[in-house]
Amino acid sequence: MSTSAVAWTDDARRQAFERWITSLAGEGLALATLRPASADASFRRYLRIDGDAGSRIVMDAPPAHEDCRPFVRVAALLRGAGLNAPQVLAWNEAEGFMLLSDLGSTTYLRALDADTAPRLYADATDALVRLQGIAARDQVPPYDRELLTRELQLFPEWYIARHHGLALSDTERAQLDRIFELLLSNNLAQPQVLVHRDYHCRNLMVCEAPGNPGILDFQDAVWGPVTYDLVSLLRDAYIEWDEEQQIDWAVRYWEKARKAGVPVATDFGEFWRDFEWMGLQRHLKVLGIFCRLYHRDGKDGYLKDLPLVWRYAHRVAMRYNAFAPLARLLERVEGTERQYGYTF
């Protein structure tokens, strides 16, 4: 048997993988069926393989680069709450291989359109409310000031300086620092819950009811701001909806969350402002991450998504007087000049 259909840069790792797969006799896995399942922005990759019980997913996560323990821990938390996360069927911790149940190959991104969106987002927000009800404060890292700040710094370092080759003036740097502090103060003051951290259309799988959606890529979960995952879902870097539609879905989520006891603000206007400010933190971070993936890691597939993320950040910056310097900076970096009135 051979795994030749899958590229291996390290022959010793290929041999270790084949030994491990062969040792899982009870699964009846056929090495000849191994094929790529999906890529990842990290050093992980996912493969699909057929066995006696149907297809399975293999995670290939070299221990020198990836720690699989958070994945296993959070998978157990999600499944314990009745959410459809992959089941860990076997784990070679020493060599960084894991066998998982297969949630299929249809992502939300592939399935979403005007007809399917109402049902798919209703299911996604139902699952999000359940996820946010998991008492996991002591089982995941905190989304604290240090981590939030480190994320924000990706914006000037990788998006402005590295990607656009621009240097901030002393005034711009001081203004950006003040804006970062405003965002951090808001983010940290929000009620705290379990945060998936990448709850969007590429990490949600279309599954049969009642297991929709399947939830992937949750290993970086933290304990943090209640609006974060909803922003990831409704202001997704890979698909755009009109703001009127975003608000409609946000209201529906907010009503479900309040009923379930999730600690959202009792006033929707306050909740929406928190949502927007949390989204600005996330989108500044994502601008930096996408540029870092290109310049540092040689992954150019995310560059096409920069314009949408820029629009998300710019719209919010234009909407609040406190962020006016950021709006101007975003325009200078992209060589645009826009005239809007500030409303808040």
UniProtKB/TrEMBL annotation:
Domain of life: Bacteria
InterPro entries for the chain: Aminoglycoside_PTrfase (IPR002575), Kinase-like_dom_sf (IPR011009)
SUPFAM superfamilies: Protein kinase-like (PK-like)
A Pfam family reported for this protein in Swiss-Prot or TrEMBL: APH
Keywords: ATP-binding, Nucleotide-binding
Domain Aminoglycoside phosphotransferase intervals: 33-253
Entries under PANTHER family matching the protein: N-ACETYLMURAMATE_N-ACETYLGLUCOSAMINE KINASE (PTHR33540:SF1), TRNA THREONYLCARBAMOYLADENOSINE BIOSYNTHESIS PROTEIN TSAE (PTHR33540)
Protein name (Swiss-Prot/TrEMBL): Phosphotransferase
Annotated organism of origin: Caldimonas aquatica
Organism phylogeny: Bacteria, Pseudomonadati, Pseudomonadota, Betaproteobacteria, Burkholderiales
